[in-house]
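Researcher: Next sequence.
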Amino acid sequence: MPHPLLQKLDQETDGILKTTKELVEIESPTTDRPACNRLADYLQTRLQKLGMVVRRIAERDFGDHIAAEFPGDPQDTPGIFILGNYDTVWPVGELAKRPVNIANNRMTGPGVYDMKSGIALAIHAMDYLKRERIPTKLSIRMLWNSDEELGSPTSQSLIEAMAQKAKYVLVFEPGDLPGGEVNTFRKGVMEYRIDVKGRSAHAGANHEYGLNANTELARQDLRLEEMTDYQTGTTVNVGLVNGGTRSNVVAEHAWAKLDIRTASARETDRIQQVLGDLKPQGDGFEVSAARLKFRPPLEKHAKVAALYQTARQVAQELDLELPESLPRGEGSRCVVLGLLR
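Model: Next structure:
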């Protein structure tokens, strides 16, 4: 027989599914501010009904970020920070093509998995605590951001500020592991743009005068990809390349975008140092590197291990197993977890 608490929580299933369906049916693609704000309105109303104080952080190009906390919780004591995003990658209209459906014990629809089901779980967890009058030892704060699918450009500083004040950070995005394992390690990810300036010339009339930016970029790309080291978990991938204007003109400008994955803070710092000191390989060229995206790696340090053991102990008390896994991908929430080093 399941643990008595699990039997009781099983009665919440229909409510969680209903809330998930309501969330999914309010489409919220990242770049559609009005659509996102319709979902922000919904979240504000639901959280206020829980007795939470809601703060909306308005953005010009994205939907409002939603921060919430219970009144009376101590502000100067590290607590539990519940984090997630309500934006999705799906455009408005996708719902009409793939409406919410439940079949074979599985719910599908645009945004169910990433991550509106997680938002529903968080809302119903708070509702359960309130209805059952279960006191919490730690304060509880929430943040639902609207720009995660584009790398959290406007919310990253807010996430960092709230995470710094937390004892525990719980991200309610479902895991992607078949056995329900918990991720205690994630690679970090960086995106860089490399720009090269050379000198334009006609490919026939005065080719010798030109400095081909494409050639210099190729040298840079080959050198940078040599930093890939599978032993340390570092990979450098030149994913996009563009340069020149016509085949009969020596290219004056060229650029490339790099995806870089690292498994440790030390390696992350090393890669950034190399890119910060980037120099031309040929005479007369100008080369620059700009960081476009940054998520630090989550290393399995003492605090991460302790949090996992706490979660595992709670699971065991409920007669559940909570296995651990060490995936190789990067975590969209490493911006927070990297702060816990």
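Model: Confidence is low (pLDDT under 50) at residues 328-341. The radius of gyration is 24 Å.
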